[in-house]
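Homework help thread (please don't just give me the answer)

Our assignment gives two proteins as sequence + structure token strings and asks us to describe the second one. The first is just a warm-up. Here they are:
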Amino acid sequence: MDTALTPAPAAIPPPETLRFQEKRETILAAATKLFNEAGIKGVTLGEIAASVGLVTTSITYYYRRKEDLATACFLRAIAGRRSLAEQAATEPTVQARVTRYLALRVLELVSIDSGEQAAPMHFNDIRALPEAQSATVFTAYTEKFRRVRALLIGSETAGLGREAINARAHLLLSVANSLYAWLPRYEIDEYPRIVQRLSDILLHGLAAAELAWPDQHMLAALALAEPPPAADDTADAFLRAATELVNEQGYRGASVDKISARLHVTKGSFYHHNDNKLDLITACFERSFGVLRHVLQAAEQAQGPGWQRCCAAMEMLLRFQLSERGPLLRVTATSALPDQAQREQVRRTIQRLAERIASLLVDGLMDGSVRAQDMAVAALAIASAINAAAELRRWVPSVDSHSVSRLYGRPALLGLLCPA
């Protein structure tokens, strides 16, 4: 018999004993922690094994490759979030379902903070997986997205088309996902109060009574200047390519080779224009922060009610995200920066920019065009919405810089329940 044509016997999976399950959970928790800190590309199986007192071969007994382990971490996190949506779906109205979903998400964070459960995998690095594994994870994530989208379907949102519902579901999901990053700045006993305020802002928006989204004539009258074009087109092309790759695959996934390939240039050309990758990514942050500062400063200095200036700033930033000059670098890129001091500096800058958004909202509160709310929480929700707009096309493929305000900007500031 020709053994070359004889198929190898199928691998027999390890028995699902209680000890096996406990060890697997330990491995998943340790791997999740390291992946969240350094990204998939920044961690080895050996490091994961060492973190739980094992050797690498002990890990491969459960997961043959690092990518298989990362996939299991993602699927576990997605299953947990899907469960939250399923629990919230039992409520009778859209308003009650959204509030319950956010409350359950906060309870999850409390449980993590107290050590009762391990932190789930962040979804920053899904695209860093090989195609086969990423397809599996995206399929599960899409199913979770559908469960969250279903929370928004009811009499309160009757008349909204599929694109509008998808855009609002992405908004809700993105704000809920961002809670892990900013909620810990509050005391734990404040969490219930914060989630009530966040729910009210997300559902009903920030406009004072009877105010709507300004029309284009009103926005044009504010004369907000767009961010100036880059002085060096070649340097800006490297920044855009690096930003896109970091958003997709994290800091370590955005290699010099991949950045060069996206621009169809050689590796030598990369180093002709850039000293190293870290400096380029640092410049990506500076570019994104510069765009945010420019738009917020223009809105601060414009004449007119604060509400209109907030809407104008939101529209300009969303249009930039979806234009040829975009996207902005996602804040999730911060966690995988190799230098701790730089990570802290970037986080401080992000916090200051969020406070600047809050200050703009306070202008509207003082002139009566923005309703009384917790402006710090509102600013964090708005910052999350702007940040997540870079991923909007995944759920609304037809969205462009002309329709993004109608589909996404309006519900971000007028609330998930605002009419079409």
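The one we have to describe:
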Amino acid sequence: MRVLVRNGLVLSMDNTIGQIPGGDVLVEGGRILEVGRGLPAQGAEVLEAEGGLVLPGLVNAHLHTWQTALRAIGGDWNSADYFRNMHAVLGPRYRPEDLRVGTLVGALAQLESGTTTLFDWCHGNATPEHTDAALEGLMESGVRAVFGHGTVKPQPRPGEPHFSEVPHPRAEIRRLCRTLPAGDDARVTLAACILGPDYATLDVCRADFALAREYGLLSSAHVWGNANRLNPDGYRALAAEGLLGPDHNVVHGNYIGDEELRIIVGSGASVTSTAAAELKSNAREPLSCRVAALGGAPSIGPDTELLNGGTMLDCMRFAMQAHRIFNNLHTVAAMERGGGVKASMEVATSGSPIQVVSPTHEDVLRWATINNAKALGLDHRIGSLVPGKQADLIIVGRDSLGMIGARNPVQALIQFAQPADIRVVMVGGRILKREGRMQHGGLPRLKERFLESGERLLAGTGLG
């Protein structure tokens, strides 16, 4: 199939190609064939983008998609509420079908809002049947995804070890590696979502990192860096044993000190911040700007729709505003100390301070595209509009009443665009949203089953 996206403002997210006013993108066989102006339309379906933006599909670097059916029940929860209500009360109620329908609707919602790739961090998979149901939802949606196989965290029964002492299940990783297609043509791939140094013993960390590396998988861990972490040395200890590298992803990390953060970034590991969720209960700023100041590539995600909006449009807006607020606070504090504006940019957490600056809109769009692709180990396939890469792209209209007249294209996208402005969504050359309408069949019945799932999960809990 040959498709020509014609006459849009191309935001390639590639430093060499740059922005192309009146630009075209030619797609063939699921890949980008050419990016430029005046490309030939012979034999191609033409998608007119005049007046709109053409850019790589957004990449969501961290979402618990299995929780989608419980949207907006936890916006006023603190961290303890989340762990008690979600993991202790609601998590055990999930049936495989709940994971399937929640993941499917969640993935379709990502596509509808311009996200073409999703890191689905799934730790509600109590059985292999739950895991397979979540994967079925991803497969049906059409989204490109990294399925992060996590594990539930139940309170142990008498005689059972605590989950922090239990390594990631080798048999499940082996089974999934045999089941899921691999290679650059695979749309859904596998990652190991492990406990990490905050939630596991050092022996379990060693086993989990080794398991992921043995199977060539990205590993990812929720980490905060609080004083109560199980391994006080955190990633310093893991790096000293050669376990830390570019095949690892750190999520959150708000309390990680500068010395440890330097080790993480220096190893090539990625760091994903989820600002909207993190700032529900934490007064420490997200890590994105500190990572950037160390030469790393910040990545971002929304985390969970229990607490906040899940689209990458929401995520970009919140991340930018959060960092600007924190940097303004640093400026005020330094000026009150008489240090001037320059001193205000030094964030002294531990060791030598890291110098940070507020992000631009272009920075944040990079976080949500090529940087997020890099965090998932997919930047050679997606994240920018470059010949040879997968044809994952979106067309964003600029003529709605809420968008018209917004001058700077990147600011228009981040500050004003809504899911309704996303006119076309393409994944691997396949059009999943056309003329503003999702192409998935059977949406009315799917919505009914989705609502039924949420109502059953909440029944009798007093949480809904």
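TA reply:
I won't write it for you, but here's a hint about the kind of observation we're looking for: The longest helix spans residues 312-336.
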